[in-house]
Amino acid sequence: MKKLAVLAFALSAAFAGQARAMTVAPVVVIDEFESRVLELVNVERSFAGLSALSFDVRLQAAAEAHSLDMATHSNCFTHDSCDGTAWVTRMRGYYPTGGIGENIAAGYLTPEEVVTGWMNSPGHKANILNSSFKGIGVGYVYEAGSKYATYWTQDFGTLAAAPVPEPESYAMLLAGLGVLGAVARRRCV
Q: In a 3-state reduction of DSSP, which class is residue 164?
């Protein structure tokens, strides 16, 4: 079974000038499937005469965290976090200002399948082709034995993409990933 869900929310004006500190350190990992989704999305945008979306570490962290959250909670397929936290609140922890949007999907086996599914859905397509979006993060998690096995999240933002940290920051990122992995393994037990 395949499922799609879409949300778009423009808060640019509501949050303009309200700089809040990020509450979660970004995770900068983009795997082959996530990278391919970014590539396919940018092909669709180029067909529509739009500029390419840039990889954004803040949006990547938000997307990966949400896909992991859905994958590790068997009856959770929703934009809101599985603990009930509103999706906007969750995303603002990673991306404090600017307009935001999100596409989620489950059960699709390949990047090509999930992007085709999103492009065949008017709401998802509208997010992908939204000319105000400049950055993207893509989260993909495979969890054997879960309800859908594959969980996908695209998080979009209107601000210029945050740069990927310099190599000297990688040690801290790897330490953070180790902690995230330990938490994920503990949640599965």
A: coil
Strand partners, 151: 106, 141
- pLDDT value of position 2: 53
Using a cut of 0.85, tell me whether the model's pTM lies above it.
no
What local confidence, expressed as pLDDT, does residue 73 receive? 87
14-37 average pLDDT score: 57
CA–CA distance from 25 to each of 93, 96, 137, 173 (Å)?
Answer: 9, 12, 14, 8
> What are the contacts of 18-22 at 24+ separation with CB within 8 A?
18/96, 18/97, 19/96, 19/97, 20/92, 20/96, 20/97, 21/96, 22/58, 22/93, 22/94, 22/96
Contact yes or no for 156/66 (Cβ under 8 A): no
